[in-house]
Amino acid sequence: MKILYSPTSPYSSKVRMAANYCDLAFTEELVDVYSDPSQLLEVNPLGKIPTLLEEDGVAVYDSRAIMQYLDRKSGRKLFPRNPAKRSEAEKLEALCDGVMDALLAIRFEPMFHAPEKIEQAWIDRQWSKVVRALDHLNANLPRTSKNLHGGHFALAALVAYLGLRFEGEWERGRSKLKNWPDKFSRFFPEFEKLKPQV
Ligand SMILES: N[C@@H](CCC(=O)N[C@@H](CS)C(=O)NCC(=O)O)C(=O)O
């Protein structure tokens, strides 16, 4: 099993942490999505990472499909069996992924537009989603013990990505959320190695 990834990508970080937690053997291959590598486009028409590749050529994407795949492949190590708890874990993952989507949209707006074409109203709309979601997360952190699930890995990837790309812009009034990775990494020390970073 191979994971095509980039070290800064929060979605990639989430699935790499999850595969590690599930004790699934995998190799990693760094790809530059913006050079449209054929190796990626041949298996994922969207040209996005993370993309998981099995030795028989089967490809799995996107990150949420990969998380479900890892859960099945590991014999259900990644999400709770109890339906209500599973739903909560999946919802936490969806919320964190949604914040990542909004953060990426904010970063890409000036990267892919000439200065006079930057749409501030679009950036503000994305940021309002971030603000509401981070306030919600700060007030509703998941129980964190040695039994981790997919939602924890999404949250860890998100908080580390915020630290990497939005330092100084989101922490005020959210100290519980900012400090949560300290607790998480006590149960998952590989966080330091697998979190989004340059
Ligand atoms: N919903 C996707 C999002 C993945 C995504 O947007 N990945 C970024 C890197 S962080 C990417 O590949 N961007 C390249 C592009 O959009 O062309 C997932 O959960 O896997």
From TrEMBL:
Organism of origin: Flavimaribacter sediminis
Highest taxon, organism lineage: Bacteria
Domain GST N-terminal: 1-78
Highest classification ranks of the organism: Bacteria, Pseudomonadati, Pseudomonadota, Alphaproteobacteria, Hyphomicrobiales
GO biological process: glutathione metabolic process; L-phenylalanine catabolic process
CDD domains (UniProt xref): GST_C_6, GST_N_3
Database matches in Pfam families: GST_N_2 (PF13409)
Protein name per the record: Glutathione S-transferase family protein
Molecular function terms, GO-annotated: glutathione transferase activity; maleylacetoacetate isomerase activity
InterPro entries the UniProt entry points to: Glutathione-S-Trfase_C_sf, Glutathione_S-Trfase, Glutathione_S-Trfase_N, Thioredoxin-like_sf
